[in-house]
Design goal:
Blueprint: H1 6-17, E1 31-43, E2 54-69, E3 73-86, E4 106-109, E5 115-130, E6 133-140, E7 172-181, E8 185-192, E9 201-210, E10 213-222, E11 225-236, E12 239-249, E13 263-274, E14 280-288, H2 298-302, H3 305-309, E15 318-329, E16 332-341, E17 346-358, E18 361-371, E19 376-378, E20 384-386, E21 397-405
Antiparallel strand pairs: 1-2, 1-21, 2-3, 3-5, 4-5, 5-6, 6-7, 7-8, 8-9, 9-10, 10-11, 11-12, 12-13, 13-14, 14-15, 15-16, 16-17, 17-18, 18-21, 19-20
């Protein structure tokens, strides 16, 4: 018998019940939007000579639809297609989002070749309010935390810290319930449904303001591991100050694909400031608790659960992250982003220029520099490359990102 997913059944029931209770005059028209994007990247070969110079192109087309259902309800739907070209035969290395999506609403084609395609439904949800509570069910976007560069509290499908395109957060299959309390306060609960029961997440969160300081709380069960987190955000002499901390009790520690240690902590402190001359700067220290203590252990960390689940992307223990942006002209913004691994003294630096080409049309040109000690070859008992730094193992790259929103 074909398995019926509880989330799908709930959505069907809601779609069947809600519209019939609403007069036709209360149902607003459709809201339509979307984007088209083209990322074209040139890659230099890595220092070890394992890869050569190459080129790849990723092109996305997205359509967003939304509709009000009376005064309280809302329906959202989005479909996205991606075409990817890689100039060498390669396996598709993009992991499935099994920890955040119960329903398989994705179709892939052309895998294991130079050209591949992917089509997916990225939004499919209903939301509304009832007796002071706000609720939403289905595939939706959920994010936690206030820190901009990389947030320890952003634990559900976070972006990599060096991501080029962060306009749209990936959708997850979830049920969310929240209630506003006082002035600026909120308390809520979220259930995120994964492909398997063991990958479900159950979290409670809260936010309030005390003496001008925003306080955040987050805790529960994240894909089988207990977690507890907190954070704050405030201002001092025109400078933004944010701090976040999340502690975890590891799962399947020591087993293949499990967590690297019994307990680990993710913590960050971020400062941002806009100078009178215009530049906006941000500086952050990050403690990456599941990271390796030595570069030789980076390959093992790559295979652990936090990396495989997308909970984190960096391999070391201590980092400095920084960004700067400045508007040279109403149509031209320049900036740079950097990550410095304090453990192995390697770094990533990306200068970038953003140019407005017209209404809702922009072009970003960038170059990513990776610097650090290159891998060392050990010939006994068999030849093997041992990493000596995180960013020294990859080659430089650059390209353009063209965006059009409608």
């Amino acid at each position: 018998m074909k398995r019926r997913h509880p989330l799908a059944i709930a959505l069907v029931l809601l779609f069947a019940l809600i519209p019939h209770k609403l007069p036709a005059t209360e149902i607003a028209s459709w809201e339509v939007g979307g984007h088209a994007k083209s990322l074209n990247l040139y890659r230099e070969g890595d220092p070890a000579g394992l890869t050569e110079n190459g080129f790849d192109s990723t092109n996305n087309l997205r359509l967003d639809l939304a509709r009000s259902l009376g005064k309280e309800g809302r329906f959202e739907f989005a479909v996205e297609g991606q075409a990817h070209y890689f100039d060498a035969d390669t396996l598709d290395m993009e992991p499935e989002d099994a920890g955040n999506r119960r329903l398989d609403l994705e179709k892939r084609g052309g895998e294991n070749r130079r050209f591949s395609q992917r089509r997916e439904i990225d939004r499919l949800n209903l939301s509304g309010s009832l007796q002071g509570f706000s609720w939403s069910i289905g595939r939706q976007a959920i994010g936690f935390g206030r820190i901009v560069l990389t947030s320890p509290l952003d634990i559900i499908a976070p972006f990599p810290p060096d991501a080029l395109d962060t306009d749209v957060r990936p959708g997850i299959d979830a049920l969310r319930l929240s209630r506003f309390i006082g002035r600026g306060g909120e308390i809520g609960a979220v259930a995120v449904f994964g492909r398997h029961k063991e990958s479900n997440s159950y979290l409670v969160h809260g936010e309030t303001n005390l003496a001008g300081v925003d306080l955040l709380f987050l805790g529960g069960l994240l894909r089988g591991r207990e977690m507890l987190g907190s954070g704050f955000a405030s201002q001092f002499l025109g400078m933004g100050i944010k701090g976040e901390l999340a502690t975890y009790h590891g799962k399947e520690v020591g087993e293949p694909g499990g967590d690297p240690r019994d307990d680990f902590v993710q913590a960050a402190l971020e400062f941002d400031y806009r100078f009178a001359a215009g530049p906006l700067c941000a500086l952050q220290y990050l403690h990456n608790g599941f990271g390796a203590k030595a570069p030789k252990d980076y390959p093992a960390i790559l295979l652990t659960a936090p990396i495989q689940e997308g909970l984190g992307y960096l391999l070391g223990r201590h980092y400095l992250l920084a960004s700067i942006s400045h508007e040279l002209h109403p149509l031209v913004t320049v900036g740079a982003f950097g990550i410095w691994n304090l453990l192995d003294n390697s770094f990533l630096l990306r200068p970038l220029a953003r140019i407005s080409l017209g209404d809702n049309l922009s072009l970003e040109a960038f170059w990513t520099i990776n610097q650090g000690p290159s891998p060392r070859e050990i010939s006994s008992p068999v030849p093997v490359l041992v990493p000596r730094s995180e960013f020294g193992s990859g080659g430089d790259s650059g390209g353009i990102l063209l965006k059009y929103f409608f």
